[in-house]
Write a structure and sequence with these properties.
It is built from 28 helices and 26 strands. By secondary structure, it is α+β, with helices and mostly antiparallel strands. Strands 17, 18, 19, 20, 21, 22, 23 and 24 form an 8-stranded mixed sheet that branches. The chain has a 6-stranded mixed barrel with strand order 4-5-10-7-9-8. Helix 6 packs antiparallel against helix 13 and helix 15 crosses helix 16. The longest helix has 38 residues. It is elongated.
């Protein structure tokens, strides 16, 4: 009784105390415990203190001189014994091996991707001092675009800001022309200190002077080779074109091709002065540029944000919320969703999901190993008994089984590394991005660390479990597994099948939500619409091209639009109307369209009409959606004035609500203006579905006539729109893979367990049959050990899946409801898999001849 009360202090003592002192010290501790006349809990604490006092060199076990140490010869012997065990128990080895290969391949693949993601944008020498200036948008949405004059104000007001680098709104799909040849490229604008701030190594030129001249351009190494076949091109003139804009520029530097773990990928950097010249007043007044800030070393970003807030409140009291703040440049890649200046998600959510799934799959594989190893313990009892009788200590037996598990893990790990290079191209295609792989020492050590750690985790419980058997009971064959071991094994089965069930339900729910997204009526038609940029075309050429395109057989309609056809449009908050509360700030989506664009999309007017040439000039008219009408709270809005940036427009029509953004977003107040300058960002054509290839071929010819030297690069609008849900598609594919792997590993583990348990119960089942037990009774006797865990796994899995998937669905403004059959179908599928896995073994037990078993 006393030993049970202080068993943990005694166990700790046995770990470090020499055997020759142990018996005497234990006796003294038990006597000491009897004499302590205080409460039981404090008595145990006193005994712990006594044990700690005994830790001294004289009584410590000698690790170096222990005769039971794992010398090289002993390790060699253990490895040999392990391989004999693998040959003897082939089915267990095969199941463990396959499970660990699947788990380790998943873990290593996800490690490579997570390692790549976490390294993006962190290669810059000034990492930690580079920040983005961003702004708040309606609905707490964060915009990268800011205002040029405001950024300059901040530099003068805040001493922690050393300098500011300006750029446009991102990479530009543009063209470079030299000696009559035109090359399609992607480029950036950058002010003069761009290459001082960012570590894009220059092969020719210097960071401080490369962008000093107003018309300077710096090319990438590969772009210079494409244009000239050489990098010795400093001082050479080329022509830059972007839509109808063009500029003669001079090469002032060559930078090394940008590495894969950079979020910014471009072929050239053009001096920001060109952008200022082309955009003029619009650039100075609007939020259409990006600002990068270099903070002084040791500067506190939060303190800088406080100063930005105070300056904004003083200089621009009309702003609500926190319109501007800075965020770490490198952090933005993973944390690109902010609310009130604080990160609330982004790509980091995908990284976390990948890590969780990788860990779960690996744990399921480890549990398989533990389950099968402990279940087969009775087959190795005599081996353990003989070794203990011959003087083997527990730690030597433990090391034997840990070496065995690590060997399986190493074999599985080597196979996983081989599989990695086969799967990696498919994985990159699935992610739609490169995965940076290198064989640097940290990566190699991490790889093998994961493999060895998996082996140790897999073998830890079996090693401790097997090495703890009493040799007396083992040799007498009176060993009976404890109820604790029995329930632990069932708990492992519950975990395996619980995780599998959660993943199965996730696959069903994600599929249903994506199906809902793809089939929901968006309020307009998006099929058989092609859209394309017209780089190189002037406004007059665009107008002539549209007129010619309408005459091509198969083209139903053609029009222009000054923004993308989907996703966030131009945004603004400076809108007023009759009766609007002056304190109310509402963010609108808006776009400038050409005649016929709203008809091309088949938007439905519920009041009034759309823009029409029949009414002459209509640049002072506006079309709103139903959400805007509801916001205005005016019964009849046709003819009402709607003011945009101090310009009044007459409302001529109201459209039904429609989804130009993803279904993550609620329908927002939106309006359309007629394009004023007859030049469009994109052209859109509605074509007939019957002769698509012929129509596209003729369009290509006409496009070449109006825009020689530029390829006809188009995309279908419905496919572009589906791209909004890339993240969800990736989650769906990853979940399918994880669910399939989890089911496979769990099923293999269940097969091994049922096979072994049936074998161990063979004499019991035979006696039952001799005594007249029916087949049903035999099936019940075999099945009861794994049916109950699957029922518990179903209950736990359904509960967890419901909570997690409800949270995921709440990210959509428009979503499905969780139906009972999602969960019922998953449970049914899991039970069916369990039945199919175990049927052949159970039927073998039912049909076995008891004579063949009992005669032994």
């Amino acid at each position: 009784m006393k030993e049970n009360q202080i068993k943990w202090p005694l166990r700790f003592l046995r770990l470090f105390c020499k055997p020759e002192y142990l018996e005497e010290i234990e006796g003294d501790l038990l006597e000491r415990y009897d004499k302590i006349s205080v409460q039981k809990q404090r008595s145990v604490v006193r005994i712990w203190l006594e044990v700690f006092k005994l830790i001294r060199p004289k009584i410590l076990r000698s690790v170096l001189n222990s005769q039971n140490q794992s010398t090289p010869n002993m390790i060699k012997h253990n490895i040999k014994v392990s391989f004999r065990s693998f040959r003897r128990y082939k089915s267990s080895f095969f199941i463990n091996y396959i499970g660990l290969v699947g788990g380790l391949t998943t873990a290593l693949l996800i490690y490579l991707w997570v390692n790549h993601e976490s390294s993006v944008d962190r290669f810059h020498e000034k990492n930690g001092q580079i920040f983005r200036l961003v702004s708040e948008h309606g609905g707490n949405e964060t915009l990268l675009n800011t205002n040029a004059s405001f950024a300059q104000e901040l530099k003068e007001y805040i001493p922690e800001i050393e300098y500011v680098v300006n750029s446009a709104w991102g990479t530009l799909v543009s063209n470079l022309e030299f000696d009559g040849e035109v090359f399609s490229t992607q480029g950036e604008f950058g002010s003069d200190r761009f290459f001082e701030l960012f570590s894009y190594p220059l092969l020719l030129g210097t960071p401080s002077t490369a962008l000093r001249e107003p018309n300077s351009i710096v090319l990438s190494e590969s772009m210079a080779l494409r244009l000239f076949g050489s990098t010795d091109v400093i001082g050479k003139p080329i022509q830059w074109r972007w839509y109808s804009m063009e500029e003669a520029v001079v090469i002032t530097g060559i930078f090394k091709d940008i590495q894969k773990n950079s979020s910014e990928q471009f072929d050239y950097v053009l001096n920001y002065a060109v952008y200022e010249k082309l955009m003029g007043e619009h650039q100075r007044r609007g939020r259409n540029m990006r600002t990068y800030i270099k903070l002084a070393e040791g500067a506190n970003a939060q303190a800088v944000n406080t100063k930005i807030y105070n300056h904004t409140r003083t200089a621009y009291p009309e702003f609500k919320g926190d319109p501007f703040f800075i965020i770490d440049f490198a952090d933005y890649y993973l944390n690109n969703k902010y609310e009130n200046g604080k990160p609330v998600g982004g790509r980091i959510e995908m990284v976390r999901l990948f890590i969780i799934i990788g860990v779960l799959v690996l744990i399921i594989a480890c549990i398989n190993f533990m389950n099968l190893s402990t279940a087969r313990a009775s087959l190795r009892l005599k081996e353990i008994g003989v070794r203990k009788t011959m003087g083997a200590l527990r730690k030597s037996i433990t090391s034997q089984y840990l070496i065995e598990s690590c060997l399986i893990s190493i074999l599985a790990g080597l196979t996983a590394i081989g599989a990695l290079f086969i799967i990696l191209p498919l994985f990159e295609k699935f992610l739609d991005q490169p995965v940076h792989v290198n064989f640097e020492l940290p990566v190699v050590l991490t790889f093998f660390g994961i493999i060895i750690f998996t082996g140790l985790i897999s073998g830890s419980y079996p090693a401790l479990y097997l090495s703890g058997f009493s040799p007396l009971k083992v040799m007498k064959e009176s060993f009976i597994p404890s109820s604790k071991d029995h329930w632990l094994r069932k708990g492992m089965i519950v975990f395996q099948f619980g995780v599998s069930l959660v993943l199965i339900v996730a696959v069903i729910v994600i599929y249903q939500q994506m199906r809902y997204v793809q089939t929901k009526n968006l309020g307009y038609e998006n099929e058989y619409i092609i859209n394309f940029r017209t780089t190189g075309m002037s406004g007059s050429k665009q107008k002539a091209f549209l007129a010619e395109a309408r005459n091509i057989p198969g083209v139903v309609n053609a029009a222009g639009i000054s923004h993308a056809l989907f996703g966030a449009q131009h945004s603004g908050a400076n809108m007023t109307w009759r009766g609007k509360d002056p304190e109310q700030e509402v963010w609108f989506e808006y776009g400038e369209v050409g005649y016929g664009m709203l008809e091309l999309l088949k938007l439905k007017p519920i009041e009034g009409r759309f823009f029409s040439r029949a009414f002459n000039e209509e640049t002072d008219k506006i079309v709103i959606n139903a959400a805007t009408r509801e916001l205005m709270e005016i019964e009849n809005v046709i003819g009402e004035k709607f003011t945009v940036n101090e310009t009044a427009y007459e409302i001529i029509g109201v459209t039904e609500n429609f989804h130009f953004q993803s279904l993550h977003e609620p329908i927002k107040p939106t309006f359309f203006l007629l394009n004023r300058n007859n030049w469009y960002l994109k052209l859109a054509l509605k074509i007939e579905p019957d002769h698509i290839s012929e129509t596209l071929s003729e369009l290509d010819e006409v496009y070449s006539e109006f825009n020689p030297g530029f390829p006809f690069v188009y995309s279908f609008h419905d496919q572009d729109q589906a791209g909004i849900y890339k993240r969800e598609v990736k989650i769906n594919m990853l979940t399918k893979y994880a669910a399939g792997l989890a089911i496979l590993i769990s099923s293999m583990g269940l097969f091994g367990l049922v096979s072994f348990m049936t074998q161990r119960k063979s004499r019991e089942l035979s006696i039952r049959k001799v005594l007249g037990a029916s087949s049903k009774a035999i099936i019940t006797a075999v099945s009861k050990d794994f049916v109950f865990p699957i029922v518990v796994a179903s209950i736990a899995g359904v509960t967890i899946a419901a909570i997690l998937l409800e949270k995921w669905l709440n990210e959509f403004a428009y979503r499905i409801d969780l139906e009972w059959w999602f969960f019922g179908g998953a449970i049914l599928l899991m039970i069916l898999i369990a039945i199919l896995t175990s049927t052949s073994i159970i039927m073998k037990a039912v049909t076995a001849n008891p004579v063949h078993v009992l005669k032994e």
